[in-house]
Design a protein that fits this description.
The complex is a heterodimer of chains A (516) and B (529).
Chain A lengths: L11 H13 L6 H16 L2 H12 L3 H27 L2 E2 L12 E6 L2 E5 L11 H8 L2 E5 L5 H14 L5 E3 L4 H9 L4 E5 L2 H13 L4 E4 L4 E5 L5 H13 L9 E7 L3 H16 L15 H12 L4 E4 L3 E2 L4 E2 L2 E4 L10 E2 L2 E2 L6 E7 L2 H9 L6 E5 L3 H9 L5 E4 L20 E2 L4 H7 L1 E8 L4 H4 L9 H8 L19 H16 L1 H9 L1
Parallel strand pairs in A: 3-4, 3-6, 4-5, 6-7, 8-9, 8-17, 9-16, 13-16, 17-18
Antiparallel strand pairs in A: 1-2, 2-20, 7-19, 10-13, 11-12, 14-15
Helix pairs in contact in A: 2-4, 2-5, 2-6, 3-4, 3-6, 4-5, 5-14, 9-10
Chain B lengths: L24 H16 L6 H17 L1 H12 L3 H27 L2 E2 L12 E6 L2 E5 L11 H8 L2 E5 L5 H14 L5 E3 L4 H9 L4 E5 L2 H13 L4 E4 L4 E5 L5 H13 L9 E6 L1 H19 L15 H13 L3 E4 L3 E2 L4 E2 L2 E4 L16 E6 L3 H9 L6 E5 L3 H9 L5 E4 L20 E2 L4 H7 L1 E8 L4 H4 L36 H16 L1 H12 L1
Parallel strand pairs in B: 3-4, 3-6, 4-5, 6-7, 8-9, 8-15, 9-14, 13-14, 15-16
Antiparallel strand pairs in B: 1-2, 2-18, 7-17, 10-13, 11-12
Helix pairs in contact in B: 2-4, 2-5, 2-6, 3-4, 3-6, 4-5, 5-14, 9-10
The chains are: A alpha/beta (516), B alpha/beta (529).
Chain lengths: 516, 529
C-alpha cells in the first residue's frame, strides 16, 4: 500500500492564508478563469482514468467499472455541467416584479463566499469531491481534505492537483484526526463535510465558533419499501445491485428492506436468483465485488452480522485478512436485531454488504417504523402501483425519494442531493453546489423621486404623517377573515341584474338611440 | 445583545399592566412535544390550512394595531409612525405576500430537462422541515418575527421566543397568539437566559436566530449537538461610503433617518461614514440642516425619536460616546433616567476611536475622514463583512466599483435600511454578519427541505444493463467505458480547425440541387401527376 504523506500540521495555517490572499487579490473574479479551472479539473480525471482505476482497486479492491460509473463519470460530468452553465449561474438574478419595489431595480448578485473547506470520506473519493466544481464556479478558493483511508487515491489527487489546477487557489491537504482538528480550528467561509453524524457534530460545533456556515452530507439507515404489488424480480435485482456496489459502503445504499409478510418469500426467491447471476457461486473470487476499506470497519460490520438473530440466506462469509464480507442477505430480522439496532435513538447504519429483510404486516406499519426514526438520506419504494409510491412519499420525509430504483438521485446534476434531520443539511450537485458556495447579495438602487411617495418616513412625525401612516401607508387585507367565507357582494349583483333588466326592457329604445 | 441579557426593571411597565409572564421551564419540553405531535399528525399539511393561519396572523396584527403601537411606545419610547412602518405593516405585508404566493411556492419544481434523466421524471418536492424555533430580539419585535410567515407557509410547526427586553410587546404576543393561531402548532415561549437555555437543549428541525454574534455562536453550538440547521441574522458595523459627487441634501436626509430610527437600534443601520475631508465638511453642513428639520430644537421632546431599550445598553453606548476623541457636531446629550441619547453626529473620528471598536447600535453616527475612496475600500475589506454596505453617489460607475470590490450581506445605492422592507429580495448576512436569509420566498425556502424524487421505469434496464454485475464479459472492456468525453479543447490548446469537410459537403449539395433544379421540379410534378 502506498504511503500517504500527511501535510505537516504547522503548514496548515499558511496554506489557508496563502489561498485567502490569492482570493482577496481577485484572482477568481473572472468567469473565464473559473471555466478554465473547471475544464482543467475535468482533464485531470480524464487524462488519468487508468491511474484512478488502479488507485481505487488498491484502496477498496473496487471493480473498474464501478469506479468509472460512480466516481470518474460523475466528477467529469459535474465539471462539464458547471462549465456549460456558469455564465447563467453567475448572472445577477432579477427578482419577481413588485409594484412597491421595481423603482429600486432590485437584483441579487452572486458573490463567492471566500475560502472554503471540503472534507471527503473514503467511500467515493471523486464523487464526494464533486462539490468542488460548485466552489470553483462560485469563485471561491478551496482546500480539499480527502480521506486517509484511501491512501493511494488521496496521494494521486495530491500529485495531480498542482499539475492541473491553480496552486494559489485550490489545494489538497492530507492527514487524519490531528490534521483535521487543526483545519477545523481555522476560520473558513464555508465547510462542506461528507461522512458520519458523529464527526458531523464536531464539524458543526467547530464551525459555530467562527460563525461559519456548514453543509453536512451524512447518512442514516435508508429503507427500501417493497409493496405486495411490486415487480419482485426487478426490485430484487436493483436493490441487490445498489446494496452491493462498493461492498455496501455507499451513503445512499438501501440499508434494510421492509416487505409485507405474505410476499416475503417471493422477494427472497428473486434475491437468490440475482445473487447467483451477479456473483456466481463464490463472490470471493468474483471480480465484480469490492472489499471493506479498513479492518476497523470490517470488525464493526462483521460484529453486527455475527450477532444477528435472523436467517442468513445468502452469503455470510467473512475473511478478516482481505477485509472481505460476502454479499449477504438476512431474513426474519426483527426491529430489535443487531442489524437494526439503535444508539441513543439513532439507528446505526450498516454501511457494508449486509441486507436485512424485515417483514411487516402491511405498508402502514412499515411507514410507522420509518417515521418513528431519524429521517434517512434516501427512501426507496417499489410498486407497480404509482399511487402506492406516492402514498409512501407523501407520508414520509427523507433526503431524496426514488420510486422503483435506487441511487439515481446521486447522479443527476439537475437535482439537489442532501439529507434532512439526522441525515444532514444543505445540498449539492450542479447549481445547488454553486449556490452552496455563493452569497446571494441583494442590490437596490433608490431613486431621488422615491421621497415624493415615501416622505412620511422622515421625522418630524407630524399629525398629518401619523394619519397617513395609520391609513394610506398601512397595508389592507383584501381577503375576508377565515371562517367568514367569501361573502357574496349582493349589492353589486343586484345592481348588475337591475341594469341588464333595464336594458332588455328598453332594448328597442336603446337600439333606436344608437341608430339615431 | 438581546436574548441573553438579564431583563432590566421597567418603570412604565406597571402602567401598561405588562408584567411579562415567563413560561415555566418545565413546560418548555411539553410545548415542543405537543407541537411536534400535531405536526406529525399532519395538521399543517393542507395548503388551505396554512393560508388560513397566514391570514389569521395578518388579522392578529391589524385588529390590534393600536395595542402594538402602545406596547412598542412603552417598551422603546417608539414613535407610532416608526412602529407602523417598520413593525406593524412589515408583518402584515409579509403574511399577505406568503398568503398570495404559497400555492406557487409549494408546487414541486421540475428539474431542468436533461436527455439522460428525463425518463426518471425528476422533481423537487417542498417538504416542511418539521418543528422550527425562531428567537427574535428586542429592536423590531414584529419585523424580526416575520420569518414565521415562511415557516407557516412551509407547513412547519413553530415556537417563537420574543425578547424579554420588550415585555409589553412580548406579553401582547403571548396573549394574542392562541386567540388567532392554532395553538397545536404555533406557540410563544417567554423568558430570559434560563428559558432560552432550556429551549436550546431541545432538538429542533431548524433554528432561526436574530441578534448578536456572541449569542449566535451559542445558538449554533447548541444546534450542532442535534445536527440542526441554523439561520443566523447578526449585525456588524455597516459602513456608508459617500463620494464628492453625491447629492448631499438627499444623502444627509436618508442617512440621518436610517441612523436615528428606533434610536439607532437597527441591525442594518449605517454604523459609520467613510468620506474624504472636503466631503466631510459638506456632509456635516447638510446633516446639521437636516437634524433641525427632523427634531427642531430638542429631539427629546420632539415625539419623533425613540429611547434605548435597557439601562445596560444605555451604559454601553453612553460609555463609547464619552470616550470618543472625535468632535461631536450634533446632539451628544445623554440622560440615564430616561434612557435617552440624543441623535448624535461625531466628525473626525479615527479608526482607533472608541466609536469604531464595536457595532454602535445606538443613535451615534461616526464620520471617519480618509485620504481617498480607495483607502475606504481597503479599510472595509480588512474588516468583517458587514450586514449592509451603503454608497451615495450620482456616479453609477463609482457605485458599481464599490459593489464589485466589497462583500456584504446586502448593498444599497443612495439609500439606507430600505432593503428590510422588500419581500422579493433575500435579507441576510455573510461572514460574521451571519448566514442564511429570509423575507418572502427566502423565508419559505429556509424552512423547507428540497426533496428530490425520481421514478424509474422498467425499460431503463434495457438501456442501462451495464450497471449490473457481473462486470466481465458483457461489459465493454475498454478502460474508458461509460466515462463521458470532454467536448471542449484543453485550456491553452488551439481551437479545433473549422470543419471544412462539412462546409464543402453542404456547398456541393447546394450546387448539385441548383444544377439539376429543372429535373427535380419535373420529378416532383411527375410524382404529383
Amino acid at each position: 500500500m502506498a504511503s500517504l504523506v500527511y501535510t505537516p500540521v504547522h503548514d496548515l495555517p499558511q496554506i489557508r492564508e496563502h489561498l485567502r490572499a490569492s482570493f482577496r487579490r481577485g484572482k477568481t473574479d473572472s468567469v473565464a478563469y473559473r471555466k478554465e479551472q473547471l475544464l482543467q479539473l475535468a482533464y485531470l480525471f480524464q487524462d488519468n482514468i487508468p491511474r484512478f482505476q488502479e488507485a481505487l482497486l488498491a484502496d477498496l479492491r473496487r471493480p473498474k467499472i464501478e469506479t468509472n460509473l460512480f466516481d470518474l463519470s460523475i466528477i467529469i460530468n459535474e465539471c462539464m455541467y458547471a462549465y456549460k452553465n456558469i455564465e447563467s449561474w453567475t448572472k445577477p438574478e432579477k427578482v419577481p416584479f413588485s409594484i412597491d419595489w421595481f423603482a429600486f431595480s432590485p437584483k441579487v448578485y452572486k458573490e463567492p463566499k471566500g475560502t472554503v473547506l471540503i472534507i471527503t470520506p473514503f467511500n467515493f473519493p471523486l464523487y464526494c469531491l464533486a462539490p468542488l466544481t460548485g466552489a470553483i464556479a462560485a469563485g471561491c478558493a478551496a482546500v480539499v481534505k480527502p480521506s486517509e483511508l484511501t491512501p493511494v487515491t488521496s496521494a494521486l489527487l495530491t500529485e495531480l492537483f498542482p499539475k492541473y489546477l491553480d496552486n494559489d487557489l485550490y489545494r489538497i491537504v492530507n492527514g487524519a484526526v490531528e490534521e483535521t482538528t487543526k483545519l477545523l480550528e481555522l476560520q473558513w467561509d464555508h465547510i462542506l463535510y461528507t461522512g458520519g453524524g458523529r464527526v458531523g457534530r464536531l464539524i458543526a460545533k467547530a464551525a459555530a465558533t467562527h460563525l461559519t456556515p456548514v453543509t453536512l452530507e451524512l447518512g442514516g439507515k435508508s429503507p427500501a419499501v417493497v409493496d405486495a404489488n411490486a415487480d419482485f424480480d426487478m426490485a430484487a435485482k436493483r436493490i441487490l445491485w445498489a446494496k452491493m456496489i462498493n461492498a455496501g459502503q455507499v451513503c445512499v445504499a438501501p440499508d434494510y428492506v421492509l416487505v409485507p409478510r405474505h410476499v416475503q418469500s417471493k422477494l427472497v426467491d428473486a434475491f437468490k436468483k440475482h445473487w447467483f447471476a451477479f456473483y456466481g457461486p463464490d463472490p470471493h473470487t468474483s471480480d465484480s465485488f469490492s472489499r471493506i476499506c479498513s479492518e476497523s470497519h470490517w470488525d464493526r460490520i462483521s460484529g453486527m452480522l455475527k450477532n444477528t438473530q435472523g436467517n442468513v440466506i445468502l452469503g455470510g462469509e467473512m475473511s478478516k485478512e482481505d477485509k472481505y464480507i460476502s454479499p449477504t442477505v438476512v431474513t426474519h430480522v426483527s426491529f430489535t436485531d443487531s442489524l437494526m439496532k439503535e444508539q441513543a435513538q439513532n439507528p446505526l447504519e450498516i454501511f457494508g454488504p449486509v441486507l436485512p429483510i424485515v417483514s411487516v404486516p402491511d405498508i402502514d406499519s412499515a411507514l410507522e417504523y420509518i417515521n418513528s426514526h431519524d429521517h434517512p438520506l434516501a427512501l426507496y419504494a417499489f410498486s407497480n402501483d404509482a399511487n402506492v409510491c406516492d402514498y409512501v412519499r407523501k407520508r414520509t420525509l427523507s433526503g431524496a425519494f426514488v420510486a422503483n430504483d435506487l441511487l439515481f438521485q446521486g447522479i443527476v446534476s439537475a437535482a439537489p442531493f442532501g439529507g434532512v434531520g439526522g441525515s444532514g443539511y444543505g445540498v449539492h450537485k450542479g447549481k445547488f453546489s454553486f449556490d452552496t458556495f455563493t452569497h446571494q447579495r441583494p442590490v437596490l438602487r433608490s431613486p431621488k423621486w422615491i421621497d415624493l411617495l415615501m416622505s412620511i418616513r422622515y421625522p418630524p412625525y407630524t399629525d398629518k404623517n401619523l394619519k397617513k401612516a395609520n391609513q394610506a401607508a398601512m397595508p389592507k387585507i383584501p381577503y375576508p377573515r377565515p371562517g367568514e367565507g367569501d361573502s357574496v357582494n349582493w349589492m353589486r349583483w343586484s345592481v348588475a341584474v337591475f341594469t341588464v333588466l333595464l336594458v332588455v326592457a328598453n332594448r328597442t329604445r336603446v337600439l333606436d338611440a344608437i341608430r339615431a | 445583545m438581546a436574548a441573553f441579557t438579564p431583563a432590566s426593571p421597567f418603570t412604565q411597565a406597571a402602567a401598561m399592566s405588562s408584567e411579562l409572564v415567563y413560561t415555566p421551564i418545565d413546560d418548555i419540553v411539553s410545548i415542543r412535544n405537543h407541537v411536534r405531535a400535531s405536526f406529525r399528525a399532519g395538521k399543517a399539511k393542507s395548503v388551505a390550512f396554512r393560508k388560513e393561519q397566514l391570514l389569521q396572523l395578518a388579522y392578529l396584527i391589524q385588529d390590534n394595531t393600536d395595542r402594538f403601537q402602545a406596547a412598542l411606545k412603552n417598551d422603546l419610547g417608539r414613535p407610532v409612525v416608526e412602529s407602523n412602518l417598520f413593525d406593524i405593516s412589515a408583518m402584515i405585508t409579509e403574511a399577505l405576500h406568503s398568503y398570495k404566493n404559497v400555492d406557487a411556492w409549494v408546487k414541486p419544481d421540475k428539474a431542468p430537462f436533461d436527455s439522460t434523466f428525463f425518463a426518471f421524471s425528476p422533481k423537487v418536492h417542498k417538504e416542511p422541515k418539521g418543528v422550527a424555533l425562531i428567537i427574535s430580539p428586542f429592536n423590531y419585535p414584529l419585523w424580526c418575527l416575520t420569518p414565521i410567515t415562511g415557516a407557516i407557509a412551509a407547513g412547519c410547526a413553530v415556537v417563537i421566543k420574543p425578547s424579554e427586553l420588550t415585555p409589553a410587546t412580548s406579553q401582547l404576543l403571548a396573549e394574542l397568539f392562541p386567540k388567532y393561531l392554532d395553538p397545536d402548532l404555533y406557540r410563544v415561549v417567554n423568558g430570559a437566559v434560563a428559558e432560552t437555555t432550556q429551549l436550546l437543549a431541545l432538538q429542533w428541525d431548524h433554528i432561526l436566530y436574530t441578534g448578536s454574534g456572541r449569542v449566535g455562536r451559542i445558538v449554533a453550538t447548541a444546534a450542532a449537538r442535534h445536527l440542526t440547521p441554523v439561520t443566523l441574522e447578526l449585525g456588524g458595523k455597516s459602513p456608508v461610503l459617500i463620494d464628492a459627487n453625491a447629492d448631499f441634501e438627499l444623502t444627509a436626509r436618508r442617512l440621518l433617518w436610517g441612523k436615528m430610527m428606533n434610536s439607532g437600534q437597527t441591525c442594518t443601520a449605517p454604523d459609520y461614514v467613510l468620506v474624504t475631508e472636503p466631503v466631510q465638511k459638506r456632509l456635516v453642513e447638510a446633516l446639521k440642516a437636516q437634524w433641525t428639520k427632523f427634531y427642531g430644537g430638542d429631539p427629546r421632546t420632539s415625539g419623533s425619536f425613540s429611547r434605548i431599550c435597557a439601562h445596560s445598553h444605555w451604559e454601553r453606548i453612553a460609555g463609547l460616546l464619552a470616550e470618543t476623541k472625535g468632535e461631536v457636531v450634533l446632539g451628544g446629550d445623554t440622560d440615564r433616567a430616561d434612557k435617552y441619547i440624543a441623535p448624535t453626529v461625531v466628525q473626525n473620528v479615527s479608526f482607533s476611536d472608541s466609536l469604531m471598536s464595536e457595532e454602535l447600535f445606538g443613535p451615534i453616527l461616526a464620520i471617519v475622514p480618509v485620504p481617498s475612496m480607495d483607502a475606504a475600500l481597503e479599510y472595509v475589506n480588512n474588516h468583517d463583512a458587514p450586514l449592509a454596505l451603503y454608497v451615495f453617489s450620482k456616479d453609477a460607475k463609482f457605485r458599481a466599483h464599490v459593489r464589485a470590490n466589497t462583500l456584504s450581506g446586502m448593498f444599497v445605492e443612495n439609500d439606507v435600511v430600505v432593503q428590510g422592507g422588500s419581500s422579493i429580495t433575500p435579507f441576510g448576512g455573510v461572514g460574521p454578519s451571519g448566514y442564511g436569509s429570509h423575507k418572502g420566498k427566502y423565508s419559505f425556502d429556509t424552512f423547507v427541505h428540497h426533496r428530490s424524487s425520481f421514478n424509474s421505469p422498467k425499460w431503463i434496464d434495457s438501456v442501462e444493463a451495464t450497471r449490473f454485475p457481473p462486470y466481465t464479459g458483457k461489459v465493454v472492456t475498454n478502460a474508458n467505458a461509460l466515462v463521458p468525453s470532454i467536448p471542449y479543447p484543453r485550456p491553452g490548446a488551439q481551437k479545433p480547425p473549422t470543419k471544412w469537410g462539412r462546409w464543402a459537403f453542404l456547398s456541393l449539395a447546394f450546387a448539385l440541387i441548383a444544377a439539376n433544379r429543372q429535373r427535380i421540379v419535373a420529378l416532383v410534378k411527375g410524382a404529383g401527376a
